[in-house]
Every structure is written in structure tokens, then in C-alpha cells.
Write a structure and sequence with these properties.
This protein is mainly α. The chain has 20 helices and six strands.
């Protein structure tokens, strides 16, 4: 189960009463049509009176006498464009998230602009900046072309995940799927990834990362096509295919990139830039996918975005097959050629065992694994709970939550974080140290989210945006750390082993969600982030000790 599906499933399941039925007032039922940033909305008239206030933005007052005063002063013409812009932004929570989106995009531009100016100032008067290797640039764009297509296809399957299963009518009784059954389908992907992930990782390392990336497209296409079936068995089989595809998506392409980068001997800074650009573009792909999903679903129903995703999966597979050269762990060709089917099974278990031994023998790998498992576990818990948190705030104002606009803001916040990562790298900040700073901010943001509750939309959203910015910084950071510490011969296996505690944490919290509540779940997320911070600080200390030991030897 990928982050895409978790985000939108959480938004839909949040509308269920006690997770048993889609019930409640219409304004509490999420509109999962797609992330839309600034689409014009019908203007809702506010109550009349001497002052009109936005309920979710206390303190901002707009005297109703102002238009008349401007008209007397001859300023009505100047007010007209502002009135048109205000209508475009909407009112209430729509307006809040539209304005937040614009502010976050402006922050992205500012961060990238400051980074460019800072880099130019650092090069001024000194040695000219060394041009990046043409081969490294070529590798970057060959990877990104495939990665972005794969991620776009993943995001396309997210917005209508719940709706497509809710539309199913099974058996002669004509009974539809309830929330309990949808939740079981939802958790099937998590379970499959946890159980089969290490074996999938071994297959990728042994037979090839390029083959693994193409296999992702095949399994994900099967999962997408399965949603058109009215058979419950086929629907569950599709979720199993989706779980296998998730393991492949989050290991094979990255393993291919890092392996190819190492074989060519390109500098590590180039790899960090590639990761930063990959996840910056991923946020854009998410917003574009929301628009495409809405357009296709409005024409052909909730299964249409899944079918559309197979087009991008096919394009990505074709590009991978033509632009990528195969790479795999050393000695895997001889292994495959010299073993029968029984030996292959033993070899698979032996490879996973060796990967485990490599992890235990190097504490730095365990620290990287702890950072990844705990942070991503906290992230998945958060995306299961943010819709409920916003709905709690909305109950105080009587407004409907614009989930699509909130999601667009989250993606813009991610872009802030992914833009800050290369800036820190250019300043020669070690990734271990920058991750520690990011995790400190993430702990504070999540703790605030858990504590604020119904305090107000502005404060709660600010905490959410800060955490999402940390998410944007996290992904290129963890990719850089994995490329630095994970041995290439076991890279995909270890990445999937990291996913086991992650999935167990998410499922454990999900199963206890009624007892924990939103605040309790976010408190669990805060605790996981705090433990991740401890692991990050330990990794940074280990790095400094290793560097000191190397200097002493020199």
C-alpha cells in the first residue's frame, strides 16, 4: 500500500461513523474528486451585518461600508479586480487553503531563489563552479523520465480507491462492499508488502533492478485492472499484486539508480541532486494526477483513473526497457546459471540471511533502518488521521473540508522541503546532520498537531504544513543515506526489510484507532518521530567518530 492510496483512503474512511458505515451529515462526507488547487468555486454568501468575518480566519474583518466609500472616492474601478480575485479564491475553508497554497508556492520560489543566489555568491571571486559530468546528467534524466511516470501512475490510483470499491455490487443479493471489507482490502496491501517484501527485494538484486522496475509496471497494471471485476477474490488478488508492486516501486528504481551511479564512479553530490529533483517533481506529479483522475472519473466512472494509470505504467516500462542498462548484485549471474529450482529457493533464503547479517554487523545500517521505519511509520499514521483532525476543526465552524485543496497544500509544502534539501547539500552540510535538524522540526510539528486539537484551523494547518515540508526533505535525504550505507549486493533486500517494522507499526495503530482517537494516534506518531531523531543523532555521532579515526590514522 503506497502513500498515495493511504492519503485518499484516510480521507474517505474519515467520513465513516466509527469506521463502520459512511454516515453523518453531508458536510462531513469527504469530497474525493481530486486535489484541485485554485479551481473557481461558487461563492457562498456570508451573513449580512456591519462586518463580515471569515469564521476560520478570526481577526480578519471586512467592513461592508468599504465598497460604498470607494465608490464615492472614485475607487470602485480599482476594487473590481480585487473582488474578482476574491471570488476566485472562494470563501471560508476554501479561501483559507487557496491562500495557503499560494503562500506555499511563493515559499518554494523563495527557497529555490535563495539557494541559487547563495550558490552564485559562493562561486563569485573563487574558482569557477565545476560543471557536472555529462554522463551523470544523462543518468539523472534517464532515471527521472521513468520514475516520474511510475509515480504519476501511482498517484492516479489514489483519489478513487475507496469510491471504486464502494461501487462494487457482489453476488446475487446485490450487496455492496461495506467499510469493514474495504478496510480489509486496504490492509491486504500492507500485509503483502511486509510478508513478501524481502523475497521481492532478493529477486530484484539477483535478477536485475531494471527487470524489477518493469515488473512493478506489470504488477501495478494487474492491480489497476482488477478493480473492474465484481469478484471479491479478484479484488483481493488485485490488492496482493498492488502490495508486490509497492515493494518493487520503493526498491527497484532507486537500487538501479544507485547501482548505476556507483559503477560509473560519479560523485555523490550528483546523486543527492537527483533525489532532490525526483521528489520535487513527485509533488507536481501528484497534483497533476489529481486533475487527470477527476477528469477521467467524471467521464467514465471511478475505475477510469485506474485504467488510465496503465497507460503511464506502460510508457514507463517502455522507457526503462530502452533507456536503462541492467544492473544486479555481483555474482548473481553465476548464481542463477548454476542452481536448480531447489537450490534457488535455498539461495533466496541464504541471500536474505546474508542481508540480515550485514545489517546486524554494521550499526550504521540499523540506524538508517530505524530512521526510515520510524519516520515513514509516523508519516502513514499522520495521513490516516489528518482528515479526521480537519473535520474536527470544521465541526466548530460548520464548514465542509475541501480535502482536495488541503492535499494540494500538503504537496506544495513537500516541494518546500525538497527544494531545501539541495540547498543544504550545496552548503556541504552532512546528510546525517541535516536529517537530524529536519527530524527535530518534525517532532515539534507532530507534537503540536497532537496537542492543538480544536484550537483553530490556522494553527493546526501550520503544524501539518511544517510536517509535510519535513516529508519533502526526508525522501531525498533517506535516499542519500541509503546510497551511502547500504551494501549494493543486498540493497533491495535491506530496503524491504526496513519496511517490515514500518508496516507492523501502521497496522497496530490502525487496529487500535477507535481506542486511541486522533490525538492518541498523532501522539504515537510523535513518539515514533522522536525515536527516529535519536537514531539520526546516533548516526551523526558515529559518522564523526569514524571521520576522527580516519584523521588519526592519516
Amino acid at each position: 500500500m503506497t502513500l498515495t492510496r493511504v492519503v485518499w483512503s484516510a480521507a474517505a474512511l474519515a467520513g465513516a461513523s466509527s469506521c463502520h458505515a459512511f454516515a453523518g451529515p453531508p458536510h462531513l462526507r469527504p469530497n474525493l474528486r481530486a486535489p484541485v488547487a485554485l479551481a473557481p468555486q461558487p461563492t457562498r454568501l456570508a451573513p449580512s451585518g456591519p462586518k463580515t468575518r471569515l469564521a476560520v480566519l478570526p481577526g480578519l474583518a471586512f467592513p461592508s461600508a468599504l465598497p460604498a466609500a470607494l465608490k464615492l472616492k472614485g475607487g470602485a474601478g480599482a476594487l473590481a479586480p480585487l473582488a474578482g480575485a476574491g471570488a476566485l479564491l472562494g470563501t471560508g475553508m476554501d479561501r483559507f487553503f487557496n491562500e495557503a497554497f499560494l503562500g506555499l508556492i511563493a515559499t518554494v520560489v523563495l527557497v529555490r531563489g535563495v539557494a541559487s543566489v547563495s550558490k552564485a555568491a559562493a562561486n563569485k571571486g573563487g574558482e569557477p563552479a565545476e560543471a557536472e559530468d555529462a554522463g551523470a546528467l544523462g543518468l539523472r534524466w534517464r532515471f527521472l523520465a521513468v520514475f516520474w511516470l511510475f509515480r504519476l501512475s501511482d498517484w492516479l490510483q489514489g483519489p478513487y480507491f475507496v469510491e471504486v470499491y464502494s461501487s462494487k455490487v457482489l453476488g446475487a443479493t446485490g450487496q455492496g462492499l461495506g467499510v469493514d471489507m474495504i478496510a480489509k482490502l486496504f490492509l491486504t496491501g500492507f500485509g503483502t508488502t511486509a510478508l513478501l517484501g524481502p523475497m521481492v527485494g532478493n529477486w530484484v538484486d539477483r535478477y536485475g533492478r531494471k527487470k524489477g522496475s518493469i515488473a512493478f509496471a506489470v504488477f501495478y497494471a494487474l492491480a489497476a485492472l482488477a478493480v473492474r471485476s465484481e469478484s471479491l477474490a479478484v479484488l483481493f488478488l488485485g490488492r496482493v499484486c498492488g502490495g508486490i508492486g509497492t515493494s518493487l516501486l520503493f526498491s527497484a528504481p532507486e537500487a538501479w539508480l544507485v547501482g548505476e551511479h556507483g559503477r560509473k564512479g560519479f560523485p555523490g553530490a550528483s546523486l543527492g541532486k537527483t533525489f532532490g529533483l525526483a521528489y520535487f517533481g513527485d509533488s507536481i506529479a501528484a497534483m497533476a494526477a489529481g486533475q487527470l483522475a477527476q477528469a477521467s472519473a467524471s467521464r467514465a466512472g471511478p475505475a477510469a483513473p485506474f485504467t488510465l494509470s496503465t497507460v503511464f505504467l506502460g510508457l514507463g516500462a517502455v522507457l526503462a526497457s530502452t533507456l536503462w542498462k541492467e544492473n544486479k548484485r555481483e555474482g548473481s549471474t553465476t548464481e542463477a546459471a548454476g542452481s536448480d529450482s531447489g537450490a534457488k529457493g535455498a539461495s533466496s533464503g541464504g541471500a536474505i540471511g546474508k542481508a540480515w547479517q550485514a545489517m546486524v554487523a554494521d550499526p550504521r545500517i540499523l540506524m538508517v533502518g530505524a530512521i526510515q521505519s520510524l519516520f515513514e511509520g509516523a508519516m502513514y499514521i499522520f495521513v490516516l488521521q489528518w482528515p479526521r483532525a480537519l473535520m474536527s476543526v470544521a465541526q466548530d465552524t460548520g464548514a465542509a473540508v475541501p480535502f482536495g485543496r488541503a492535499f494540494s497544500c500538503f504537496m506544495a509544502a513537500c516541494m518546500v522541503g525538497s527544494s531545501a534539501f539541495p540547498w543544504m547539500a550545496d552548503k556541504k552540510v552532512a546528510p546525517e546532520d541535516s536529517v537530524s535538524v529536519m527530524l527535530s522540526v518534525a517532532v515539534a510539528a507532530m507534537a503540536a498537531s497532537a496537542a492543538l486539537g480544536h484550537t483553530g484551523l490556522g494553527l493546526v494547518s501550520a503544524a501539518f504544513f511544517a510536517f509535510e515540508a519535513c516529508v519533502g526533505f526526508y525522501f531525498p535525504s533517506i535516499g542519500t543515506l541509503r546510497s551511502k550505507y547500504l551494501p549494493d549486493e543486498h540493497r533491495s533486500i535491506i530496503m524491504n526489510l526496513f519496511g517490515i517494522p514500518l508496516n507492523l507499526l501502521v497496522v497496530a495503530v490502525y487496529l487500535q484507532i477507535e481506542r486511541l482517537g486522533t490525538a492518541g494516534a498523532l501522539a504515537c506518531s510523535t513518539a515514533a518521530l522522536a525515536c527516529s531523531l535519536v537514531a539520526s543523532l546516533a548516526l551523526g555521532l558515529t559518522r564523526r567518530r569514524d571521520e576522527a579515526a580516519q584523521l588519526a590514522k592519516a
